[in-house]
Amino acid sequence: FDGVEIHGAHGYLIDQFLKNGINDRSDEYGGSLENRCRFLSQIIQAIASAIGPDQVAVRISPSIDHLDAMDSDPIGLGQFVVTEINRLERVMGGRLAYLHVTQPRYTASSKTGSAHKREKQEEHLLGMLREGYSGTMISSGGFTRENGMSAVADGETDLVSYGRLFISNPDLPYRFAVNASLNKYIRATFYTQDPVVGYTDYPFLHQGGGQDERGTKSDTESENRVGSFGWVLSKL
């Protein structure tokens, strides 16, 4: 492999240390932001010392409350983590490969009456983290062509990553480049043991899976449209 992305997001172990809504420890790993970030900091330093910081990346999701891992101040948490990573990069004498920030497609708190106010406050979280981080930042989380390109153009992130769309579209970069529609992904096949169905059986555009910018349609035309991937390739 070329590097390691430390998964400090989505309610898993590291994220459980970061979020004060689930971290109820009373030792040096709980309480203050510094303490809650300590576990992640130690992991970053340990892996970077083994393979070099330029082969290490970190993924965080300060505003996502998946698996009940939520924080009372996602903006403050995100900004502190970014500040800490900047500090670690100075100590280690090199930058990480990138910082990967996932924004929520939806949150459990969206069902509450205070959700709208909180969502408005977090609307510009990506931009604030991009402004605060000294290295390269990748963002993900339900992006479409329009808002993905806008996020880059507006300086909210350097790159945008896609997951589900890549599963159902093996030629996703080409489809983006020619503004083709996409194969619909089938969520029911995401976490199954079949090595083919839902993994390697989605058609390429030239096999009839989609519609290009000339309007040539196929039976598997998607309702979802995304566009040019050139802006991503030009950043690499």
Describe the structure concisely for a colleague.
Belongs to the NADH:flavin oxidoreductase/NADH oxidase family. This protein has helices at 13-18, 33-51, 74-92, 115-121, 125-132, 145-153, 164-168, 172-177, 230-233; strands at 4-8, 56-60, 98-102, 137-140, 159-160. With 236 residues, it is α/β, with parallel strands linked by helices.
Keywords:
single chain; 236 residues; alpha/beta; TIM Barrel; 2 domains; five-stranded parallel beta sheet; 9 helices; 5 strands; globular
Query: Which whole number gives the mean pLDDT?
Result: 85
What order do the strands of the largest sheet run in, or round the barrel if closed? 1-2-3-4-5
Percentage of residues in DSSP E strands: 5-15%
Shape: globular
Number of alpha- plus pi-helical segments: 9
> So, CATH architecture of the largest domain?
Alpha-Beta Barrel
Low-confidence stretches: 213-236
Order of helices and strands: EHHEHEHHEHEHHH
Q: What is the CATH homologous superfamily assignment of the largest domain?
A: Aldolase class I
Quick one: CATH class of the largest domain?
Alpha Beta
Number of strand elements: 5
Integer-rounded radius of gyration: 19 Å
